[in-house]
Structure formats: structure tokens, C-alpha cells
Amino acid sequence: MRYSLLSRFRGALLGSFLGEFLGSGGLPEHVLGNSSPKSPQLEESQYNWRLSGWSEIATCVSESLIRCGRLDLEDWENSCFALKQSLLSPKGAPKSGKVAVAMLPIALFFHEDVVKLRQQVLEATATWHDDAQISEGVLAMAYAISLALSEKLDCARLIPQTIAYLGTSQTPLVQQLKQIQILWEQGASLEATVTKLHRDFQRPNQLFPASIDISIALAFYCFLDTPEDFRLCVSRASLSKYQPQTTAAVCAALS
After folding, report:
1. Does the UniProt entry include the keyword Nucleus (predicted)?
2. How many domains are there within the chain?
């Protein structure tokens, strides 16, 4: 293992926060480039940015897991109830990518046992909305992180393994991931990938009458395209033009 487990945990959490920053319009060269460490401080006044509510919930979940040593829904919901309520929309369920950002600490905490990981993710996501698309998106991210932390991640097999783990067929996310696998194998550009997913899943059609979240699938694509280059894959995710904060945050967590 090139890095300790603690370093990987820190990298996933900090990477997610950094990805969210870049997706919000932060300039990559100030954070990931070759500028001096003092550059961001010198220009700090130019940025009026703070963590999204979803990342703040991730912080609450992290603190609760440390405090309780297990997933205690009552504990973490009590600590961020008002914040969670402010993120719920009367128009419907939140996007799966956003919930995935909030549930990242659970993916890290239970990464060693994929059976228990599934149980804990399903239990946690059920508190948001009874929506299979949400839990499926979080499970996909969590399983990929589990493979990475266990030194079992093979880029060529990541999507087929993830689809098998989800255990579903013909759902929007599974179809998106299958598309990503094909596009990745063909060497499709980011622009072509975004265009394809947008055409198939963002425009209402006979199969999907409503717009479907594609941030998880895009994050997988950006990670797979340059898995060894954190700077490049997160920068590209932030330029995806589709929920860039969420896409970049999930991509950074995978990286």
C-alpha cells in the first residue's frame, strides 16, 4: 500500500471538499498548480466560498461515527437536523450525487465489509427519501471507494463489478454506467460523454419521463480517464458543466 489507510481517509474527505471548491468556480491553478503555497492566502479575499450543506452534513456524519463508533442515525440527525431540513425540497427527492457527498464518511468507515457497507448505506439513505435512485448512487460510489481502499480496484473491471454489486438491471444509473464503460473504452472525450448522457438521461423520453441525475456516472468517467492524476481528473470534472460541484466532489473522493 503506497499510502496509509489514515492518509487515504484524509485524502478522500479533503479531496471531496477541494473538488467542491473547484466545481464552484475556484481556479485550479491556485490550488492544484505550481504556484507558491502562499498564493491562495494572498488572494483569499477574492473568494466568498464555503462548504455546501451536503459537505457540512458529511462533517456531521464523520463526527458522529467517531463519537459513537458506529452508525447512529439518531445521533447524527440530532446534530444536523436543521441543516438537513433546509436541504430537502418539497419538489421531490434530492439528487443522488449530492447525497453521496453527504454519505462519504459512511463509505469510508465501513469499507472493509461490502455486505455491511450496503446495509449501512441503505439505512442511512432511507432517512433522506424513499428513492432507489438515491441509494443506488451512494452504493456505487461507496463500493468503488471500498475497492480502492482494499487495493482491489481495477479500472477495466470497476464498472462491471459495480453493476454486479448494485444487483439491479435497467435502472438509470446502471444504464449510465454501461454507457460510460463503452465511451471510456472508445476513448471518448469529456464533451462527447457529457453530450451523450445529457441526450439520453436529461431530456424526458419514453424510458425516463423526468430528468435523471448523471453526476455519479460523470464522476466515474473522469476518474477512469485519468485515475493516476488527481489534478487532471478533478479539474475536468469541475468543467463538466453538469452540477460541477457535485461531480467534482464525488470524482475527487474516488481519486
Report:
1. no
2. 1
Q: What is the CATH number of the domain that holds 114?
A: 1.10.4080
Residue 172 lies in a domain: yes
Distances (CA, A) of 220 to 30, 32, 155, 198: 25, 20, 10, 15
**Residue located via cell numbers 466532489:** 249
The secondary structure element, H or E, covering residue 175 is helix 172-186
pTM: 0.85
Domain extent, residue 81, equals: 5-26+51-254
Tens-level pLDDT at each residue, the chain (255 residues): 567 878 888 888 888 988 888 887 755 444 455 443 344 443 444 455 677 888 888 999 999 999 999 999 889 888 887 777 777 655 556 788 999 999 999 999 999 999 999 999 999 988 877 678 889 999 999 999 999 999 999 999 999 999 999 987 778 899 999 999 999 999 999 999 998 888 888 665 545 545 678 999 999 999 999 988 888 989 898 888 788 889 999 999 998
* Residue 40 falls inside a structural domain: no
| 35 assigned to some structural domain | no
Asked whether residue 89 is domain-assigned, the answer is yes
